[in-house]
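Predict structure. Chain length: 206.
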Amino acid sequence: MKNTQPGDIVREAYSARSQEYAELVGSMASTHPSDRALVSAWAATLEGPALDVGCGPGQWTNFLTECGLVASGMDLVPEFVERARMQYPALSFDVGSFAALDAATDSLGGLLSWYSLIHQNPQDIQIPLAEFARAIRPGGGVLVGFFEGGSVEAFGHAVTTGYRWSVAELSQELVTAGFAVIETHTRTWSGYRPHGVIVALRQSSR
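Prediction complete.
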C-alpha cells in the first residue's frame, strides 16, 4: 500500500491543475499593486541571496531579481518548476520540500513565502518555519503571504484543503521558530478572501 504524505496530496492536486493555475494567477498582472510595492520595499532591505519558496510558475522569483536580488525558486510541483524554467531561463528553479530546503544553514539573506504555507496542517507549521529559520542568516528577512481570518481554520480551497490564520497566531508561530515580527498587513479585496502579510527578521539566536 502506498504511504501518502500530506505533501504528496498537495503536489498531486496542483500537478493535475498546473496549467489552469498558471493561466489564472501565474503572472504579475494577477497580483495587487500594494503587494508588489510591499515585496519590492522588503527586497530592498535584504542582503544576500533570496529564495522564493513555493514559487509556482516563477513570477515572484523573477520580480525579486527585477528588484535587484540574486533570487532562485523552489516548488513541490514539477510542472511549475518546468514552466518557470521555460519562462525565466536565466534563473534557477528546483523541485524540493519546504521541510528540507536545498540551502546551507545561515546562507540566505531572505525568503519569500507567498501563499506557500496555506495547505500546511497548522499542527505541523513549525516544520517549515524552523527550516526557514535554519536557512536564513541572522538578521535576514522572511515575508509570508497568507489567507487571513479571525482564527486558524480550514476552508475549501479550489485545489485542496487550505487554512486561514489570524495575524496574531501566525506571528506567534514565527516567533517560536526564531523570528522577530517587524510589521504586519491585512487587506480585504472585493471578490477575494481576506489577505495577510507578515514581515519578520531571523533572530541571532534560536
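Summary: Residues 1-5 have pLDDT under 50 and may be disordered.
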